[in-house]
Design goal:
3 strands; rod-shaped; 17% strand; alpha+beta; 149 residues; three-stranded antiparallel sheet
Length: 149
């Protein structure tokens, strides 16, 4: 009689395991997906900071100047040259990345005097790693600094 009872409980353990393993797998996939999203945000934020650092270091008195009073195209230098290159080194597809470089102080002081700030805004559409019909999320990052003259 005791062996009959144990045999019927074996099926119950199999069903419980099947239900539990599905939940655990979704949990593991969710943790990996959130980690990848956090990593992408970190890369995008660091790329924006790298663009600001480039603009700050290459002021008007530099051989390749940047800033509102300079003749070089800082949008091209920071946007495609520095920010996107930085993101490419971390295996991100930069063809869909949008980089916007602005100078908020160009109207108030003359172009060759302080304060002149530079702002770099980066937008990147994050594609989920596993897919699973999850939506694309736009990751935004901003960085700002003062241009040295």
């Amino acid at each position: 009689m005791k062996s009959k009872q144990l045999k019927s409980e074996d099926g119950q353990a199999t069903v419980e395991f099947a239900l539990t393993i599905v939940f655990v797998m979704f949990l593991i996939v969710g943790i990996i997906e959130m980690s990848m999203l956090l990593y992408t945000y970190s890369v995008v934020a660091d790329a924006a900071k790298e663009g600001v650092r480039y603009a700050v270091v290459h002021g008007n008195h530099n051989s390749s100047p940047s800033g509102p009073g300079s003749t070089s195209a800082i949008d091209g230098a920071v946007g495609t040259g520095v920010v996107k290159t930085y993101a490419q080194f971390s295996f991100h597809d930069t063809s869909t990345m949008t980089v916007t470089v602005t100078y908020p102080d160009t109207a108030s002081p003359p172009a060759n005097q302080s304060p002149n700030r530079v702002q770099v805004k980066v937008s990147y559409p994050y594609q989920p790693f596993f897919g699973l019909a999850w939506p694309t999320v736009n990751v935004y990052a901003n960085a700002e600094g003062r241009i040295a003259f």
